[in-house]
Amino acid sequence: MNSIFAKRRARLLAMKAMRDNYVPPEKRITCPRCGKETQRRDLAENLLVCPGCGYHWPLGAYHRLSTVLDSGSFRELNGKYPAGDPLFFPGYKAKLASTQRKTGLTEAVVTATGTIGGYRCVVGVLDSRFFMGSMSAAVGEKITLAIEYAARSRLPLILFSASGGARMQEGILSLMQMAKTSAALSRFSEKGLFYLSVLTDPTTGGVTASFASLGDIILAEPGALIGFAGPRVIEQTIGQTLPEGFQRAEFQEAHGFVDAVVPRHEMRPTLIQLLRLHGKGEHP
């Protein structure tokens, strides 16, 4: 009976994510990569992964958490931490309010405690719907608070990245979050605790250059764009044509930047295995 309710809950959460504008609202969805049409419900049940080519649509923060955390274990950390407008950037406050209404989020990251396969951990997820998951002062603070909570509680830490980098409207204050999150992770590492970084599409800019690249183990979803500057900027800068698939997850794995490329369906069992091998979390 519990499994029936769990499946029903997972389907409802998946359908809610579909309504959050990750994919078009039509009943049949066309994959942007292979052109295959899929029924909307089938795509939701397949974790927003194209059954034809394996293309991974973006997942919202709460939806992604529902795919990896044990049912009923989710406890949000600093859920009401507000976004700010420290530089009084023209039009920024109105855009923040509009994005908050559309997404139901206060900022571009959700952090929580929970269990994965019974192992207690702290998990953070960047949501690309909110200013493309860009790192504001509030995002950096929420991530830092989650790292410090994990350190105090001696729990493993898992961060899912999806970001366009620093948030332009917050200038140097946004860039400072690179140093702040990295310093927090250094203190976390000194305690001998386990940090797992998961890179999703896209992970770029200041997020790549800070906490996303500091994991003890770094995983990536298939096809994820991972890098600092974009391929076109690099080509224009160096005046050369880049190799096929440059900066994609598979290219990064082949060149040692990530440890493994893990499809979405295999992410939860992979996390359980890694927590069992390396984590300090409690298990019943």
In CATH terms, the superfamily of the largest domain is 2-enoyl-CoA Hydratase, Chain A, domain 1
CATH topology assignment of the largest domain: 2-enoyl-CoA Hydratase, Chain A, domain 1
| Count of the separate structural domains | 2
- Output the structural class: alpha/beta
Largest sheet features:
7 strands, mixed
Please report the distance between the alpha carbons of the first and last residues: 22 Å
How much beta, percentage-wise?
15-25%
Q: H/E order of the elements? A: HEEHHEHEEHEHEHEHHEH
Number of helices, where a helix is a run of at least 4 consecutive DSSP H or I residues: 10
User: Mind telling me the CATH class of the largest domain?
Assistant: Alpha Beta
Shape: globular
Q: In terms of per-residue confidence, which ranges show pLDDT below 50 for 5 or more consecutive residues?
A: none
Mean pLDDT equals 91
Fraction of helical residues: 40-55%
Rg, please?
A: 18 Å
What CATH architecture label of the largest domain applies?
Alpha-Beta Complex
In brief:
The protein has 284 residues and is of the alpha/beta class.
Helix-strand blueprint:
Elements lengths: L1 H21 L5 E3 L6 E3 H6 L15 H8 L6 E3 L14 H12 L5 E8 L2 E8 L10 H17 L3 E7 L7 H20 L4 E9 L1 H4 L8 E4 L10 H8 L10 H6 L5 E2 L2 H15 L6
Parallel strand pairs: 5-6, 6-7, 7-8, 8-9
Antiparallel strand pairs: 1-2, 3-4, 4-5
Key terms:
single chain, 284 residues, alpha/beta, 2 domains, two-stranded antiparallel ribbon, 10 helices, globular
Describe the structure.
By secondary structure, this protein is an alpha/beta fold. The chain contains ten helices and nine strands. The protein has helices at residues 2-22, 40-45, 61-68, 92-103, 137-153, 171-190, 205-208, 231-238, 249-254, 264-278; strands at residues 28-30, 37-39, 75-77, 109-116, 119-126, 157-163, 195-203, 217-220, 260-261. It has a seven-stranded mixed sheet with strand order 3-4-5-6-7-8-9, sandwiched between helices. Strands 1-2 form a two-stranded antiparallel sheet. A hairpin with a 6-residue loop joins strand 1 (28-30) and strand 2.
